[in-house]
Amino acid sequence: MNVIEKLCVVTAIYGLAACKTENQLDLASLNIDPYNQEVAISGLIVTKQHSPLSVPEEYSHIHTLSSHLLEHHWLQHDNFLGDLAELKAMFKKTSLPEAASFIIALDKSQKRYLSYLNNVDAIAVGMQRQIDKDLKNYRHSIYELSNKIHFLETSEITYQERVNSLEAKVKSQSSRYNQLSAAFRQALQRTINNHDSSIKLIDELSFSFDNRPHGICRQYHGMSDLLTTVTTNCVYINRDQLLAPFPDSLKDKASKVIDSYAADIWHAMTELNGYFDTANNTQHFPDNLNYQLAQARRALREKTYLNERESALLLHRYQQELVHIEQQRDEILNLAFLDENLRIDTQSEAFIRKLNLSVSPLEPFANLYQSADIKQRFTHAYAEKIIHQYPYELSFTVSSSGYFSIPNKSDATGVIFYFNDIKQFLSYDLTKHSQNPEIINKNSTGLSLSTQSLIDVVSGKLKQRWAI
User: Fold this and answer.
1) Are residues 331 and 76 in contact, defined by beta-carbon separation less than 8 angstroms?
2) What does the DSSP assignment read for 342-406?
3) Which of 44, 103, 114, 199 is the most buried (most CB within 10 A)?
4) Which of the four pLDDT bands, split at 50, 70 and 90, describes residue 468?
5) Which PROSITE patterns match (predicted)?
6) Which of 94, 100, 67, 105 minimizes the C-alpha distance to 83?
């Protein structure tokens, strides 16, 4: 026998030995006809990370999100559109034709939600307008009654002391205002005297006012220039008129004098008298010292003419009226659909009940989700996807004689054998990893036979997850 012939014999022997190292399913003991060529047997390896009987995270998230959407009222769901979009994306990701009806239903639900929300917002705006109107009336009445009660509860001597105090403040503030005005005019006159002492100032400092935030003030208001040293509102001065007598060489210096005095004069004036806009017939800064003094003097006069009995009767009457109007306000405004700021809370149970918002925009999706027929078709299709897309490296085939090899055996915790056209499958636990071939028969430890197909069992597990 030559060398080549010897090599062939050795190779054949090793090939037979390799065949003998394969595991074998004893098909006869399992009542499976080994000669039935139509029976194809496939194997799936179970590991700690993978099992065809485990519900995929993607599928679980679909139904967790579905339940979250369906269980909460759509007005009480802060991220309704976001969750709807995420759910639609997850159905698309399954790539199953059976998911198309869910995607269409979610599109319809989104359109309904936007339509319903517009109607709710319009109703809430109308309700808020009426509540604001009622609240304004109540606040005005309560304010007036509170002032009357305060007036009656305050002693005459207190009012006399307040009048005395305000008179002193008015006198002091008048003096300050006059001093500032005089000092300002003198400073301007000294500036122009350096050029020509015969020139006299004609125009007085005057103001105009626009009650807007300083950040949106215009630079000019008519013939007046914005006073930038006042940063609370839009205050304007007649800068050009004041600077008219000055030669160009002194205008910049004179303008700095104006800026150094104008803001103080403005604040002194408004604190003393406020500012009355003749163009709009509007009083700004109404709580000025002269106004407070006038109010205090009037209160003192009224207090002087009231005797104790009249005062006590009026106080009791006003107190009763205040209690009544506060109760009335609370009955009308202390409603469950208002938040702590007395704004309409469209998420409150009371608002939902008041508007009878029982119809959900999710109705098209809910009808499908609760359909037993739709559930059966989708879970069956998803079960087929799980099995057909099982990782290739964890799959193997079994020969018609029952021989098979397990790839990645060190990671395997079990094996599942399933058959085409036979409503059963085998589960086999790998408790020990032996290097020797195994023959698996009906008496093997760790072997269990299901009387259902693998797809039906997987589909059943998916159905259980559907309702959670």
Assistant:
1) no
2) S-B-TTSHHHHHHTT--S-TTHHHHHHHT-HHHHHHHHHHHHHHHHHTS-GGGEEEE-TTSEE--
3) 44
4) low
5) PROKAR_LIPOPROTEIN
6) 67
